[in-house]
Amino acid sequence: MNTQITQNPNTYKTDAQFPQTTSDDEIDLRELFSVIWQGKWLIIAITAVFAIGAVIFAIKQPNIYKSEALLAPASEEKGGGLSALASQFGGLASLAGVNLGGKGGTDKTELAIQVLKSRQFTSEFIQKHNILADLMAAEKWDRDADKLIYDPDLYNEQTNTWVREVKAPFKPEPSMQEAYKAFSKMIAVNKAKETGMVTISVEHLSPAVAQQWVAWLIQDINKVMKDRDVAEANRSSEFLNKQIALTNVADIRTILYKLVEEQAKTIMFAEVRDEYVFKTIDPALVPEEKAKPKRALICVLGTLLGGMLGVMLVLVRHFVRKDAA
Predict the structure, then answer these.
(1) What is the mean pLDDT of the chain?
(2) Domains (ranges, CATH) in the chain?
(3) d(C-alpha 113, C-alpha 59), whole Å
């Protein structure tokens, strides 16, 4: 039995009309390597330019020194009396319009950190210690003389005047808003979630300045928080004494007297303790080694960037010419 197989002539016609193009779309690695090898001198030249530029850039960057201190939250030795009063006389105190604060308020350590980062504290800190020039005009540090050198285009050290040229609304002397932005980049305050320890660090051209600023920050934040609590306790005592004079109810007067006693304890606790909020565990030291820049890393990254840019340029040039042809 003979079987004849007939083929559809349209099959050959379709193949002729739509030739396979998968081979043209595939990337030929040998071709890429060949193109890169042919353009090796251009790649080497671009890489060398970027490498030299990275080296020059790294050398011109001034050394930045970092000084830091490790702090522990000061133990709360007060507040227990208020809690006891709240549980014992809460009902009567509410009749007198006095809030005993039965539940804990804002974490004092976290509050101190936020105050430390605030614009008001930073502005007062800069003005109190007269560090505006060290913050905004320092150009480099003379190791031998242990002295900061200021940018003459910004600040005249001889006359202690600002000579920088700026457009309105800015003035030759930097404002506290400008100083706050610059200071915020130099200071870091971090709190460990596990231990509650707080680290305060300052980066500056001068290692001595960095260490001094950390010490001042710790001293000032403790004083600011202490002054706040003392002022609040004094205001509370004045109010409570007025309430005592206005009431004849013996139980309420007892509560008010105990509250006055607690406020006196608060004032006494603050006055006898310098490390009011933060207790220094590891004080700031004058760093001997720079923290940045990492010049070797800058040179390596610059060289790699130049090499990648050179390879891309050679490949793009090749494929543009190929498509044009």
Answers:
(1) 82
(2) 30-58+297-324 (no CATH), 62-75+107-292 (3.30.1890)
(3) 36
CB atoms within 10 A of CB 302: 21
**C-alpha to C-alpha distance for 82 and 101, rounded to whole angstroms:** 7
Q: Which amino acid is at 21?
A: T
Classify the C-alpha dihedral 317-318-319-324 as positive or negative.
positive
Residue with tokens 């303790």: 273
Lowest mean pLDDT among 67-71, 130-134, 235-239, 253-257: 253-257
The answer, yes or no, to whether residue 22 has pLDDT greater than 70, is no
pLDDT of residue 89: 53
Taking residues 11-17, report their average pLDDT: 47
Q: Where on the phi/psi map is residue 222: left (φ > 0), alpha (ψ -120 to 50), or beta?
A: alpha
- Cβ neighbours, 10 Å, residue 250: 8
Q: State the burial class of residue 75 (Cβ atoms within 10 Å of its Cβ: 0-12, 13-18, 19+).
A: exposed
Q: Which residues 6+ apart lie within 8 Å of 143 measured at CB? A: none
Q: Is the peptide bond before 73 cis (omega within 30 degrees of 0)?
A: no
Choose among 99, 100, 102, 93: nearest CA to 247.
93
pLDDT in the model for residue 113: 93
- Cα–Cα distance measured from residue 299 to residue 304, given in angstroms and rounded to the nearest whole number: 9
Q: Is residue 23's pLDDT more than 90?
A: no
